[in-house]
């Protein structure tokens, strides 16, 4: 799917070179069609849960300059330098100018892709479903190691003088989460806390389902 969005050199090579969950922009489709949970401007006729390209090739995105953005961080300027080797590689294999775009929030990153101002992005785990459903993002790579392992861990912190030493000690306490769309900062720990100590909290259908399908270890 990534290769036919552009008419110059194919982008399939990026799947091996990329290290983060990346996504390609798919232009909107306005016809009545099957779309699942996707926004109404997208179609999903083949049921793969990502937006289809328009059947009319004239509607395909074909920018001379590709815009790449990494998930929002505290100091975007630092990551601009870190990503320069990838940007240089992307420019070489696509034969296009590639520029780094620093985003200030997950919402801004999703909106930039939805509006067509962002073409390739490294989304963090939590916002990825929003990028897919609302911006037509098509994930094609994720961070991994040379031995094939991938993923990350979330950690729970409390004050050094606190009386909280184990997860069970959270019962009856107020727990601060990060962004509502963050996987490690909210979506993953919410069902885990529910399993571990039955903490009362408002959680989404997605995280409730995750609590029954994904094991949590304290």
From TrEMBL:
Keywords on record: Signal
Pfam families associated with the record: Phosphonate-bd (PF12974)
InterPro entries in alphabetical order: PhnD
Superkingdom of origin organism: Bacteria
Family annotation (Gene3D superfamilies): Periplasmic binding protein-like II
Signal peptide: 1-31
NCBIfam families documented for this protein: 3A0109s03R
Family according to the record: Belongs to the phosphate/phosphite/phosphonate binding protein family.
Protein's recorded name: Phosphate/phosphite/phosphonate ABC transporter substrate-binding protein
Native species: Vreelandella olivaria
């Amino acid at each position: 799917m990534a290769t036919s969005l552009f008419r110059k050199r194919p982008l399939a090579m990026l799947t091996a070179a990329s290290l983060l969950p990346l996504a390609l922009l798919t232009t909107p489709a306005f016809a009545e069609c099957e779309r699942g949970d996707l926004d109404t401007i997208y179609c999903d006729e083949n049921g793969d849960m990502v937006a289809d390209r328009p059947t009319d090739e004239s509607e395909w995105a074909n920018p001379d300059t590709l815009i790449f953005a990494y998930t929002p961080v505290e100091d975007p300027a630092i990551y601009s330098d870190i990503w320069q080797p990838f940007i240089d590689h992307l420019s070489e294999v696509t034969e296009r100018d590639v520029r780094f775009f620093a985003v200030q929030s997950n919402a801004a990153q999703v909106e930039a892709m939805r509006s067509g101002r962002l073409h390739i992005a490294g989304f963090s785990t939590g916002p990825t479903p929003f990028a897919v459903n609302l911006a037509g993002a098509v994930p094609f790579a994720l961070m991994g190691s040379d031995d094939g392992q991938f993923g990350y861990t979330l950690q729970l912190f409390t004050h050094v003088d606190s009386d909280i030493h184990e997860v069970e000690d959270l019962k009856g306490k107020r727990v601060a989460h990060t962004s509502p769309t963050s996987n490690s900062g909210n979506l993953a720990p919410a069902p885990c806390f529910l399993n571990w100590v039955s903490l009362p909290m408002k959680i989404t259908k997605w995280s409730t389902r995750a609590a029954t399908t994904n094991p949590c270890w304290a």
